[in-house]
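Methods: holo model generation. Sequences were used as deposited, without trimming of termini or removal of tags, and paired with ligand SMILES retrieved from the corresponding compound records. Each pair was processed once, and we did not select among multiple samples. The sequence and pyridoxal-5'-phosphate SMILES for this entry were:
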Amino acid sequence: MDASLAPVTVPPGGQIGGTNSGIVARYRAKTPGSAELAREAADLLPSGIAHDSRHVDPYGVYIERASGAHKWDVDGNRYIDYFGGHGALILGHCNPTVTAAVADALSKGTQFGASHGLEIAWARAIMRLVPSVERVRFTSSGTEATLMALRLARAFTGHDRMMRFKGHFHGWHDHMTSGYTNHFDGSATPGVLDGVASAVTLVAPGDIEAVRAAFAAHNDFAAVILEPTGSSFGQVPLRPEFLHELRSECDRAGVLLIFDEVVTGFRATAGGAQGAYGVRPDLSSFAKIVAGGMPGAAVAGRRDILDLLDFEAMAKSGREKIGHPGTFNANPVSAAAGITCLGILADTDAVDTATATAGRLRHALNEVLAETKTPWAVYGTFSGFHLFMNPQHRAIDPLAFDPFECSMAELKEQPKHLASRLRVALLTCGIDTNGRIGGFTSATHTDADIAETAVGWREAIAMLRAEAEL
Ligand SMILES: Cc1ncc(COP(=O)(O)O)c(C=O)c1O
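and the model returned the structure below.
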């Protein structure tokens, strides 16, 4: 028997943390240092964490260091990292050129309270890759970038209403909360004003007729915002034709089109999803890769729209400028990382490498599913992967699975308990995915990582079977 499948001795009292799962027991046995830190954090931070998607049952691992495609926890366990810094790390952890640029910038100062040359170079690095970008305003996070994109759209068009697609994520500001994982009727989530929620129209993703109907019903749309490859980097994929149709409908209705390229930017292709599909949005939001693994983001696009942030342009036109401070906007250390990372993406085949690796990873994981007769499928596009957990028990061949045959609800639905156990089982096998059991590849993941992941995947499935979870 594989050593990692050996029975686990359950401590006196039988149950550990409210469960007698051998998977959880093995996880606890491997991660005592993380358990201790999690106990300490629970007193100080809500749920002991700083980001909802780091919530793990019974607790998440505490990471001490990372390099390339791997990271190590406080107990010395090594993980193949598919969380990928929430998608920020297309070059993997600690790319030496990016790290050197960050160290150099850090040694010169972290906050000048003044303009600096790196912000110009950073904007140029974005424009070099994304032709729709005529001007850039830096922000500190993707949430801020989409918030500013909406504000620009409202001020530019003089209209109030926004269109979003169900399941699409654009950060956590007030316009973006309903309709991501719940409140699909558009009602306000806790703490959000009804008036804000009701100014957002939620539409089924990919449904161009629903878009047309909404445009016909309301003549006060300022903008449509979407994740251009579909929600959660294509967990619910969109057909490229939809993007072209949407562009045409927006043009017809005089509505601005915003691509939220926080994840897809510089990942789908070096020119983002807009580069992959040849659709030119009016505005784009960028974060994650744009700042090379450091905090930083941008709203970018048409010069005449970004002019709403420009003192001189607004004085000349007699319009009121949109105010936009932000202490860490275009932070020089983030700028150094962003310039260096985007330069590497422009000059090398790093994006294609990450994409090709993800294709081989999906195939390897699906081979295991087929061999073990596990009724799931791993799918995805570009450098991403997602797990379909088949809630309606379809007869599927994982190696030929087509997500377009499934509804959004089917693709998103994952038995919470099972997904949670699988996540922990994978961690015990040295594999870190996101909570939906998906993730990103980087240009540093190798075929050896894929082979090791396939072995861990097989083991994790066997563990679930041994506990009658599957
Ligand atoms: C598509 C998309 N938009 C916006 C955001 C928000 O970005 P941030 O976490 O930097 O606020 C995210 C974050 O994951 C995202 O995936």
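The radius of gyration is 23 Å.
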